[in-house]
Fold this sequence. Notes:
Blueprint lengths: L23 H4 L43 E4 L5 E5 L7 E6 L2 E7 L6 E5 L8 E6 L15 E4 L5 E4 L6 E9 L15 E3 L10 E4 L3 E7 L8 E5 L3 H6 L2 E7 L1
Parallel strand pairs: 9-13, 10-12
Antiparallel strand pairs: 1-2, 2-5, 3-4, 3-6, 7-8, 9-14, 10-13, 11-12, 11-14
Amino acid sequence: xxxxxxxxxxxxxxxxxxxxxxxxxxxxxxxxxxxxxxxxxxxxxxxxxxxxxxxxxxxxxxxxxxxxxxxxxxxxxxxxxxxxxxxxxxxxxxxxxxxxxxxxxxxxxxxxxxxxxxxxxxxxxxxxxxxxxxxxxxxxxxxxxxxxxxxxxxxxxxxxxxxxxxxxxxxxxxxxxxxxxxxxxxxxxxxxxxxxxxxxxxxxxxxxxxxxxxxxxxxxxxxxxxxxxxxxxxxxxxxxxxxxxxxx
Length: 248
């Protein structure tokens, strides 16, 4: 995947779902850093135009449901540990932190499936999906779960941007024909985000583009940048646009 372009506190994200103030224990965690540590060039707004016809919403309803029953917390050992319920038909699961692979869990019929993050950071977004096979092929991957964050009590709690939240972002475009970082096949309606701020599975409407389903990341996708997928030269024609996005 080509190079694409700190934490949510530096962005004007609109009305976020309320997450309680962290405990002193959680507050000692380091800030979540962007995964790419190299130099990211400036992305000045240049203008551009959309594809003409608006892109429809990505449909993932035919995939395995996301794991539920998520429960866990930040322990006194400084690790975040959580368990989740098995998904009928699943052979394995993957866990992510801010869009980065955290753990692979094979389903051997064990009563409890567990994930441990030995290096947590503040307000990290933990997400999961189930798989019908252990080959990580795009068709085997289930629906991504909601994000979970460490709450004021130290326990994990669901987190999402509220519907109707508006985001003032720079919007770029890419045309890679490959799997997204989440694992789905890239195509119309998918977009790359800074998953520290927009958890995977977030849906937003993009003026001049249509619907965007967050399922990818990129080295240059940092802070207030979203990269929407367009075919061929349409990605170049899009340019860099400053737009107001709306969470759906």
